[in-house]
Amino acid sequence: MKIDIVTDTYAPDVNGVAMTLGRLTEGLRQRGHRVHVIHTGATAGEGETLAAAVPLPGYKEVRVGLPKPHELRARWLKKRPDAVYVATESPLGKSALKAAKALGVPVATGFHTNFHQYLSQYGMPALQPVAMGYLRNFHQQADCTLTPSPDMVEQLTAAGVKNVQLLGRGVDTRLFSPLKRCEKIRAGWGAQESTPVALMVGRVSAEKNFDLAIKTFERMRQIFLDVRFVVVGDGPLREKLAAKYPWLHFAGVKCGEALARHYASADVLVFPSETETFGNVLLEAMASGLATVSYDYAAAALHVRSGENGFKADKGDSAGFINQALSALSLCEDDNLRKEARKTAESLGWDQVIARFEQSLMEISAAGRQTFRTISTPGKRPRLSCRTVFLSDIHLGTPDSKADEVVDFLKHIRCHKLVLNGDIIDGWALRRGGRWTSRHSRVIRKFLKMTERDGTDVIYLRGNHDEILERFLPMAFGKISFTKEHIHLTASGKRYLVVHGDGFDSVSTNHKWLAALGAVGYDFLLRVNRFYNHYRAWRGKDYYSISKRVKAKVKSAVSFVDRYEDLLQNLAIHRKCDGIICGHIHTPEDKQVGAIHYLNSGDWVESLTAIIEHHDGSMELVRHEDFVERIIRDAATVPEPPPGMQDEDAAVSPATSMA
Predict the structure, then answer these.
(1) Cα dihedral sign, 46-19-169-100
(2) What is the pTM of this model?
(3) I need a labelling partner for 396 at 20 to 30 A (CA). Which of 26, 305, 327, 628 fits?
(4) Domain extent for 217
(5) Total domain count, the chain
(6) At which of 130, 147, 171 does a domain end?
(7) Over the stretch 326-353, which tens digit does the pLDDT of each residue have?
């Protein structure tokens, strides 16, 4: 199988998720699977790709991956995987999940971290339902969700997540072993051969319940005067705790052999966290022959028999936890208990975990093949063959122009004629200091490439934001012509008047200063939209357009749209046309009013819509995301063309796409 893994954290990061993914990746590769890991970080090894990230505010050790939907879509169109595993719920993970679903690639998600429970540790319990809503929305979109403990399976299933599967954890008993005990390390802690040492391993942060750990350590000090306390790890609380409790020894981050020696050189693991999905450190400590103290959930619920191979208290019972910790310290020299802990760990190898992971991915891959057959020409992008495409209101030169989406849309199209119906370039925004980027240049290059490669005729109608073209009209060079309006004759013989439509907006024609002020106000709404929809995305909700809501609710705005449509329909009748195609008002529409077919191509700021004329002359209003998903889905059912008929891209017939 070809498997892509998407994650914010990966080796050499030191945490449970990175360690688990490293084990799973290596195990799959040893079984002959081709695994590629897309992760954040400083460097990428063979079979890895880097993704951009930002540090979590106040917690620089944690990176948050940034979305890269177009890069992932392009990669998976070219090198389609059999399955994708998304390990983290960040914007990077969200974009990977969305891209995979759009392309029909089977996708599994991993629930590795209880981020929603962390919020109470940071004084924000009111946000827990919001965070859980985002996580639920995220995992509901996957074909299956893998989580490491039965209680997490139960919790996610109760929250409404479908097909939640148990994927346990293993431990490397060759690495973690009592034989790694090191008297030199113990001496560095001030511990003699018989001195008991209590150990805590993990991030030095609030979610690990250091408040209870400190209370436990202080109670131990009252009874066992020579006990030593060691913390392995780093995090935002380290400096504060080191200054307040000088008797705590902070060893810093350890991994590999160094970590194994630190485990084996201690006697008791104190593990008070209440927010784990599993708790890998518990198995590592048991493999190292330590007496462990933990709450009775996650890994402890599965593998610890209190008083036999470790100690555990009911979750949330801090007094019970401290008592269990005192019992562990008093019995830390009990060879039978420590041998039982080691024996339990020896039965928990990674082989069975990797086999279960492999099985889950194979199951969703097999189910996916029944629904989506891989495109018959590997590496070819499916494209719809059509007669004409109408685009308007791209507004290149503004930060809200969806230039990448325009290019992606056009890459899935082969047309005889492309009509650019005004406001393609936003001259108003550029005069106000708008920034032209390479993304905007790519759109222009795509137009030119279509004329060169496909022989597409391009007709550019001026709008009000690119009205500077007015003084040069009409004009043509090569296969590109510039004009003010256009009469389009369909394959079925119908006449459509194509105009941008600003001439029927009294504000744009008679009060340009007011139109410019309105453009500034619209830009402000879009800026608010960006921030508001970042918040909605964090909550797991879909995009919401404030400007559309305003237009729908404000009576004058609704009346304006109605008057605008009526005027254009009357113009079509006057010009003896069967229909009219316009833009300008950023309101996509396809409706029949009497004898006139009214079409508005919308915009590429919010709506992301276009109008397509198929080879039979029928008109269709399409939305970018829905259109691309449909083309890819339909391409999966198209038989491979005979030799000599294959093109650079896989073409989808109009009949198939309209089915």
Answers:
(1) negative
(2) 0.57
(3) 628
(4) 178-350
(5) 3
(6) 171
(7) 999 887 666 799 999 999 999 998 999 9
